Amino acid sequence: MPGRLIQLRGITRRFGSLVANDDVSIEIESGSCLALLGENGAGKSTLMKVLYGAIQPDSGDILIDGRQQQFRGPADAMAVGIGMVFQQFSLVPALTVRENLLLASPRAPWLQVPGAPGLDTVLEVLSRLAPDLDPRSRVADLAVGERQLIELAKVLNLDARTIILDEPTSVLTPAETQRLYGLINEMVADGKAVVMITHKLADVAACADRTAIMRRGKLIHAGPTRDMSRQQMVDSMIGAGSPASASPPPPPDRNVARVVVRELGARTETQQVQGISLEVAPGELLGIAGVVGNGQTVLAEALAGLHPLTAGDVTVDGISVAWRPTPPVPDGRVAHIPEQPMLNAVVPTLDLAANLQMRDIRRRSFWQFGRRGQADLTVRLQAADVRPPEPSRLTGTLSGGNLQKLVLGRELAGEPSLIVACYPTMGLDVAATRTVYRQLFAHLARGASIIWFSEELDDLLEYAHRIAVLRDGRIAGIRNRDQADRAGIGDLMLMHDMARSA
Amino acid sequence: MDEATLILIAGWVAAILRSATPLLFVTLGETLSQRVGIINLGIEGEMLAGACFGFAAAATTGDPLLGLIAGGAAGVVLSMVHAGLCIGLGANQFGSGLAVWMIGLGITSFYGRAFVGGQVDASGSLGGSWLGDSPVLAQLLDNLSWTALAAVLLVLLAGFLLYRTRTGLAWRTVGEAPEAARAAGLSVPRIQVSGVLLGGFLAGVGGAVLSVDYTQTWAQEMTKGRGLVAVGLVIVARWNPYLVLPTVLVFGGAEAAVTRLQAGGFVLSSHVLASLPYIIALLVVVGAYAWGRRGSGMPEGLKGVFAVRGS
Known about the structure:
The complex is a heterodimer.
Chain A: E1 5-15, E2 18-29, E3 32-37, H1 44-51, E4 59-64, E5 67-69, H2 74-79, E6 82-85, H3 97-104, H4 124-129, H5 144-157, E7 162-166, H6 174-189, E8 193-198, H7 201-207, E9 210-215, E10 218-224, H8 230-238, E11 259-267, E12 272-280, E13 285-289, H9 296-303, E14 311-316, E15 319-320, E16 334-337, H10 341-344, H11 352-356, H12 374-383, H13 400-411, E17 418-422, H14 430-446, E18 449-453, H15 457-463, E19 466-471, E20 474-480, H16 486-501
Helix pairs in contact in A: 3-5, 7-16, 13-14
Chain B: H1 3-35, H2 43-61, H3 64-88, H4 93-111, H5 135-142, H6 146-164, H7 166-176, H8 178-183, H9 188-214, H10 226-236, H11 241-263, H12 270-274, H13 276-292, H14 300-303
Helix pairs in contact in B: 1-5, 1-6, 1-9, 1-10, 1-11, 2-3, 2-4, 2-9, 2-10, 3-4, 3-9, 6-7, 6-11, 7-9, 11-13
């Protein structure tokens, strides 16, 4: 197979005011594995979707062996042998492994009786990737790692010579990860080009001979992996400090715990946390850092009393607020600002008034006539800086910033003692971000305790009084602000993976 | 077993199969429609239209086969309304289905008046054919028309197409995961329209078999909810064409048994007796869940029917 060179030149892509890719140029060679490294939202997936034809760039060119390409859709990219395996698989769970492969293969025979010619050719690649996998088993019954192998087989069945893997190890067990590393190295030895989108240094160390690092839409560095130290990678990925926009009140003088989390355990189908012990003083801002998917969601819901505990307890002023064994009665002591507020915090098809009063729904009168209190609501919306402050407006029409302000206005109205905030500024513009921080800081000054989940390490280092790192469902370490630096926290978040698999 | 017993059993089997044939067509049609992700409550109206226009064609031309074809055509025309509303315009499937049912009811009441009380000749029985002439077979075949045979063969053919061909794989994928089907390059609307129209055709034929072949007469609202029963039997059969055959036969057998019990002077409220087939169907559903515990076999895409779009 002759080698080939794919060049992305000056790719720029905007989503509204967000620049997801800012003049990015990289090269992808046959017989080589390129790691595209960066934090969430750095623009890695967008760049690769441009190459896969799923997203059209605003400007920039794609060249294959020097010839310019126009991809109107993934079909065009597949036609020249570019395939992509997404984080969210496109398999049909109710069908068998073989049926899923037949569905995706252009060479599938019409007559699919047992023993029909061509029925087993679609399995050839898979039988090399996973010799033990029974093609008659239903995809719904398979582990995530096995499903990923089927997706990979689908792509390879289409004669892909350039294979893009989007965060391939984020859903895998350690053993499955090791096997995937082996497969990637085999494909590279076979002369294929592999691009691995990742935020894990362990992935880079295991497979990539070249590394490109992106941050906030820009390409920071690209070159052979061996020329960079791990420290340089972490620095390039996480970036230098950003200018402060607001400042939090100083940490409380006396560290008397008000919120006590003792040996907390909780689990969902996909995540679990165990042995979580934390103490937060009045007026203290405790940041929780960690790569997404290490148990943040279930921990936040467990702290807010929205998810049953399997062990331990959460107390505020000595009174349990946890769901154990029964859900707590909401009394305004705990506020919860969930991630993705449009999905988790509001009913988009109801008006602002209904969503603003959602917490009091059990105290409202049975009759909901007339527009009594409309003026009150307008005042509350104005106080929360929601624009426009129209109580009858549909909530789904608000912008992200105004929606988050609505949620804050509702959750923080009762002067809560504990505020659980999950990625409260994610996807917001600078002004809205500043408003969110200012409100949280005002409640800190009042004496509330805040537990703040964030992926923005810069922001955590800037604002949090202490930072706890969550990894694999456990607290990997807690640092005071004056002892914490980017490298130390990054070590706790990432490096141990590296040590384990290197 | 002596020959007399065998003849008795053959008579029973023939009676069950005869009374179950219309339902077999209709249930198979609804199964195929739901396999591509479209619930069609209008199947009751389509069956009624098939019965009415099938009977009209058979009475006018004297040819039962033409009657069945006309019935199928009437079912297709009505199912086009459902397909147009649901797939073309994105209307709610329940609303559209109920509308189609009412349209079928209205049209057949209006145009069917002229044919009320009419009579047609049945299509030929299977008796005396090449299939054999022993007394047992004769008892079975003399009482069956070729429509029963066609229904059984169609069920097997549909199962084969659905599970053993690329076309069937495409249909199942559309019903299970429309997004994945699109990603695989399939035209989801085209396959859904095909499924609904084929379902309408089979429902129309089923209706025509009822009027032309079974009762050999036409009466207003003569389907008496059999189309809706078919919607329920699809669930009992777990959306599997092969299981449509035993399901409908158990249900038809219970119906035939009730008739025999009543004729035999069995003293019990006729309302209780009439509900017996439904109780049996319910027990089958409950038993299948308790015993199997593997989910209902319901295509995932059907669950979207209950979701709000565009939110």
